[in-house]
């Protein structure tokens, strides 16, 4: 019966949603372009006019090795989350600041933390392990975690509901400011494109995604960069912004349409990587039955969906161009003769967070 205030600190936004006990969003506010942290003052202003709530649920990107499910916020939990800051530098400080702000604004209201990493906690060892020295893996805990799990958990359920059957070998593309893919079977993650941090994999708004690890060593030794500059280049000045000067796919796509050469290349690099990784996820599943697009770009950019499927005909995936261009909200965009169901789903991380928050409170 609990009304839950959900705080979703993404890399490019802070999204506040108040959900009633039916998971209907009754109040909502987005803070966009938020860098670094969120102050209590900003949070208080954003919450003006929101109705009453009984609990608060936070999306926290990194749960490290310890948090494989949601937890109630306690001083000890906060201490453990603070230790993970460098593993998700664009997200973790913001989420912690949000928890702190709400402890001041709504003292006594229970707060839960729900993790992006939890959905991938059961990744098969072959997908979770980097081929690095054993002492790094054992002493430093170097492994692949995976992220966007709250979005994947919701989308996997919703895909089954919409398709009216088990989605089978399911690949979900969460394409927002951050972007990743998950290979899902029977509701479980069997592979994903992000790793130890949310920097691995696809080209993102400001993150490079995959680069040759040898490049990093070379840049430190010969590129005149220190580790802070290397971090900034990969996390904040790479990806679409590094390729085109714009971090927002809307602007990049508009410039590409107008023939801007950097923007054309930016879209090509983005799509080249996306297609390659969709095929890799399909390989982890031994085939592909359902492909889902979600996240700001996945939901709102038909040209990115079309571009991703262009060249993936060998997987049996075809798009209905008209349905793809017209898709609003949750929609099926499968083309005729396609052996793969293609769906567009609105990302609803807040639903997953609200449900996990209620579960955590009940278990208290
Ligand atoms: N209405 C829209 N039309 C086209 N693109 C959009 C739209 N809304 C969002 N996007 C794209 O989605 C990106 C943000 O995705 P989102 O999932 O909201 O990000 P975050 O990672 O902050 O949660 C924007 O940078 C933009 O490129
Ligand atoms: C994990 C991650 O990259 O999240 P977001 O896309 O919200 O920045
Ligand atoms: Mg997001």
Automatic annotation (TrEMBL):
<dbReference type="InterPro" id="IPR004372">
    <property type="entry name" value="Ac/propionate_kinase"/>
</dbReference>
<dbReference type="GO" id="GO:0005829">
    <property type="term" value="C:cytosol"/>
</dbReference>
<keyword id="KW-0808">Transferase</keyword>
<dbReference type="GO" id="GO:0008776">
    <property type="term" value="F:acetate kinase activity"/>
</dbReference>
<comment type="similarity">
    <text>Belongs to the acetokinase family.</text>
</comment>
<dbReference type="GO" id="GO:0005524">
    <property type="term" value="F:ATP binding"/>
</dbReference>
<feature type="binding site">
    <location>
        <position position="349"/>
    </location>
    <ligand>
        <name>Mg(2+)</name>
    </ligand>
</feature>
<dbReference type="InterPro" id="IPR000890">
    <property type="entry name" value="Aliphatic_acid_kin_short-chain"/>
</dbReference>
<protein>
    <recommendedName>
        <fullName>Acetate kinase</fullName>
        <ecNumber>2.7.2.1</ecNumber>
    </recommendedName>
</protein>
<feature type="binding site">
    <location>
        <begin position="174"/>
        <end position="178"/>
    </location>
    <ligand>
        <name>ATP</name>
    </ligand>
</feature>
<dbReference type="GO" id="GO:0006083">
    <property type="term" value="P:acetate metabolic process"/>
</dbReference>
<dbReference type="GO" id="GO:0000287">
    <property type="term" value="F:magnesium ion binding"/>
</dbReference>
<feature type="site" description="Transition state stabilizer">
    <location>
        <position position="148"/>
    </location>
</feature>
<keyword id="KW-0460">Magnesium</keyword>
<dbReference type="GO" id="GO:0006085">
    <property type="term" value="P:acetyl-CoA biosynthetic process"/>
</dbReference>
<dbReference type="InterPro" id="IPR023865">
    <property type="entry name" value="Aliphatic_acid_kinase_CS"/>
</dbReference>
<comment type="pathway">
    <text>Metabolic intermediate biosynthesis; acetyl-CoA biosynthesis; acetyl-CoA from acetate: step 1/2.</text>
</comment>
<comment type="subunit">
    <text>Homodimer.</text>
</comment>
<keyword id="KW-0418">Kinase</keyword>
<feature type="binding site">
    <location>
        <begin position="296"/>
        <end position="300"/>
    </location>
    <ligand>
        <name>ATP</name>
    </ligand>
</feature>
<feature type="site" description="Transition state stabilizer">
    <location>
        <position position="207"/>
    </location>
</feature>
<feature type="binding site">
    <location>
        <begin position="248"/>
        <end position="250"/>
    </location>
    <ligand>
        <name>ATP</name>
    </ligand>
</feature>
<feature type="binding site">
    <location>
        <position position="59"/>
    </location>
    <ligand>
        <name>substrate</name>
    </ligand>
</feature>
<keyword id="KW-0547">Nucleotide-binding</keyword>
<feature type="active site" description="Proton donor/acceptor">
    <location>
        <position position="116"/>
    </location>
</feature>
<comment type="function">
    <text>Catalyzes the formation of acetyl phosphate from acetate and ATP. Can also catalyze the reverse reaction.</text>
</comment>
<feature type="binding site">
    <location>
        <position position="8"/>
    </location>
    <ligand>
        <name>Mg(2+)</name>
    </ligand>
</feature>
<dbReference type="InterPro" id="IPR043129">
    <property type="entry name" value="ATPase_NBD"/>
</dbReference>
<feature type="binding site">
    <location>
        <position position="15"/>
    </location>
    <ligand>
        <name>ATP</name>
    </ligand>
</feature>
<keyword id="KW-0963">Cytoplasm</keyword>
<dbReference type="Pfam" id="PF00871">
    <property type="entry name" value="Acetate_kinase"/>
</dbReference>
<keyword id="KW-0067">ATP-binding</keyword>
<keyword id="KW-0479">Metal-binding</keyword>
